[in-house]
Design brief:
alpha+beta
């Protein structure tokens, strides 16, 4: 019984380290930006398997250090998403789609 409990704890620790690494690296997704405001963008994005999100159109918060004036609209882009301190994913970078 103790061995099972110890294995369970080890698996939880490894899973949390993997998830933390993913959050630190960010999640890349292809999208089209439809509109931009000072703190959010409206996008249509592809499926995001890492988050279990289907393709959809939605508003996403933009990290404070992202230059929203440089975000193109109605052209394919690649977004990088990171989990904010509040647990909500936000856009940390926008680049031309590859």
């Amino acid at each position: 019984m103790f061995a099972r409990a110890a294995l369970f704890v080890v698996l939880l620790v490894v899973a949390s380290l993997v998830l933390a690494a993913d959050d630190a690296q960010g999640i890349k997704v292809k999208a089209v930006v439809h509109s931009v405001t000072a703190d959010k963008i409206n996008v249509s994005h592809e499926m995001i398997p890492e988050l279990g999100w289907p393709p959809m159109t939605m508003d996403l918060a933009v990290a404070p250090d992202v230059d929203v004036d440089a975000i193109p609209t109605e052209t394919p882009v690649e977004l990088e998403l990171i989990k904010g301190k509040d647990g909500i994913y936000q856009v940390s970078s926008v680049s031309a789609a590859q």
